[in-house]
Design brief:
This protein is an alpha+beta fold. It is built from 15 helices and 18 strands. The protein folds into four domains: 122 residues, no CATH class; 59 residues, no CATH class; 83 residues, no CATH class; 60 residues, no CATH class.
Length: 378
């Protein structure tokens, strides 16, 4: 009997970790992956991952159980065949790899309750899968017979004769296509339907697609804008979650003339000043996408036509803060600070700021624009 010290826990923990330690060693996976898998399963099971009933149920569903009465772990490791095993005992579980106990302490004198063979069962699963695959593919014969395809027709191809195998040993056949051309095809490609013609079928499909071509602008920017408008205004679109609040939820629609006719939208865009550096904008932000309510503007103009803009009205002129900033040459932060302090609109827009100067190393520098108070030049 041999014992090998090994702790799979990455943090070096010894207590309450024998389940993940032993299963990760026996199944040949990392401790982190084993812990994640067992944690997810234990949550579904409604218990902790070190619960005895959960561990036994997990092993019984995956591996064959081997029971030995009144046998110690050390005795089992002497008589057991080579392989990967997991053995349980009172309050502990350990891994036995090729007759060697792999654990953080020597548990060879403890009585074993049950044992599960790990790797052997996995190998049996692989063998059973391969056997079933060959059985289904070759009709019960493990070794495939030489299949004669001469004279058979596969779509547009008729098999003429068998030719030399390819460099990997796969059978090849000379076939005649309905168009009169001959081609060499793998037998597996014929039987699976991978190859249906000499290539003429693909050419014909390409011609049909090209013939159905409507406008040829599917990859252009203006086409993407049209598609984006349709997605925004369609409540059944797959993008509805991101657009619903601002468009479909506010009952914003696209006119019927544009909805299913890209050419109509394209003609309107070209005749109304479309350029690659402009974006489409609704004049009335609560209106629909229609010719009378849309225009092509710069991004700056579009940002000034948003619902969440703060509009200041003075002397009959309604402008956003950014527009007043550009008109009066006031800093944007100055206007917003005055609004926050509760100034009147007239006082905000008529009170001019002053420049504050400082002298440093005999040079004159502008510190910034400040409110007009009893400030003196330094």
């Amino acid at each position: 009997m041999r014992y090998y010290f090994y702790n799979a826990n990455p943090k070096g923990l010894f207590t309450e970790d024998c389940v993940c330690r032993s299963l990760s060693v026996a199944e040949g996976i990392s401790w982190e992956k084993c812990h994640e898998k067992l944690s997810n399963l234990s949550r579904e099971y409604g218990t902790l991952l070190n619960n005895v009933n959960f561990v036994e149920d997990y092993l019984d569903k995956r591996y064959p159980r081997i029971c030995y009465d009144n046998m110690t772990v050390g005795e089992f490791s002497k008589v057991a065949p080579k392989g990967h095993f997991v053995a349980t005992m009172d309050g502990h579980i350990t891994a036995i790899i090729d007759n060697v106990i792999v654990d953080t302490f020597d548990c060879s004198n403890r009585i074993m309750k049950c044992c599960w063979q790990i790797m052997w069962y996995k190998e049996v699963q692989k063998i059973a899968f391969l056997f079933a695959l060959c059985y289904n593919k070759y009709g019960g014969n493990m070794i495939p017979k030489n299949i004669n395809l001469i004279g058979k027709r596969f779509s547009k191809l008729k098999v003429i004769k068998r030719i030399e195998n390819d460099k990997y040993g796969n059978s090849r056949w000379l076939c005649e296509c309905n168009c009169g051309n001959t081609t060499e095809v793998l037998g597996s490609h014929l039987r699976s339907g991978h190859t249906k013609s000499c290539g003429c079928l693909q050419k014909q499909s390409y011609k049909n697609i090209k013939h159905k071509k409507k406008h040829g602008m599917i990859n252009t920017r203006i086409y993407r804008i049209w598609i984006s408008i349709k997605n925004r205004t369609n409540p059944n679109s797959k993008f509805v979650n991101s657009f619903y609040k601002n468009y479909s939820g506010r009952n914003i629609k696209i006119c019927e003339d544009w909805k299913n006719n890209f050419i109509s939208f394209y003609n309107w865009a070209i005749s109304n000043g479309y350029q690659d550096n402009l974006t489409i904008d609704r004049i009335d932000v609560d209106g629909n996408y229609e010719p009378n309510n849309c225009r092509w503007v710069t991004m700056k103009e579009q940002q000034n036509n948003k619902r969440n803009n703060t509009i200041l009205e003075y002397n009959g002129l309604k402008l956003t803060i950014s527009q007043w900033e550009e008109k009066l040459k006031f800093p944007h932060k100055l206007i917003t600070n005055r609004l926050r302090r509760g100034w009147s609109i007239e006082k905000i827009l008529t009170t001019k700021p002053i420049k504050r100067w400082i002298v440093w190393r005999r040079e004159l520098y502008i510190v910034g624009l400040v409110e007009k108070k009893n400030h003196k030049k330094c």
